Structures are given as structure tokens and as C-alpha cells.
Amino acid sequence: MPGAALPALDGPAEGGGMTPGSQNQPFTEVEFGGQKVTVPADGYYDRYRMNPDLDEVARDPAAGNIDFFRRFAKQMVPTRIGWGRATSCASTW
């Protein structure tokens, strides 16, 4: 949203900070495309990076129905930010 202000962090942002707002959920620092970024600690990206265990994610009630994602086989491919897992969605439509 253009012109929207970002919320202040409740705690330190480096290597274990807190989420924006008042939830006090810790962040962790991960490498993404050669850059260090903060993500929610023990969140999906922190736990799986780009290779989630769909059976484990499906057991999380917050995830909802993830059957759509099971249709797509993933393979390692080179990208502008390094190697990553991707799928060719066109082959499944």
C-alpha cells in the first residue's frame, strides 16, 4: 500500500528480534538469495525453507486444505537468487 507506514518492532531486529506490533513473536535471521532476512522463528520458512513437508504442514489447523499444492512436483532449478525448488505449473493445468 503506497504511503503506508511500517509498524515499529517491539524488540531488537537482529538475530532474534520480535515481530511488528505487540504479539512479541520472535524473529530469526535466514539467508535468502544471498541476503539476510528476518522471518518468524519456527515459522514455515524457518522450518522448511523452500521444501515444506506437506504432511506436517497439513496437520497444522492454521494451514487449511493444502491438497492443491500436492499436485505439483518440484525440482531444483537455478534462479537469480541461487538454486531453489520450483515447478512447471503449465504441465499440470
Give a description of the structure.
It is a single chain. This protein is α+β, with helices and mostly antiparallel strands. It has one domain. 15% of the residues lie in helices and 24% in strands. The protein is built from three helices and four strands; from the N terminus they run E-E-H-H-H-E-E. The strands form two sheets. It has a two-stranded antiparallel sheet. The chain has a two-stranded antiparallel ribbon with strand order 3-4. A hairpin with a 2-residue loop joins strand 1 and strand 2. It is flat and about 35 Å long. The chain starts with 26 loop residues before the first strand and ends in a 7-residue tail after the last strand. The N terminus is likely disordered.
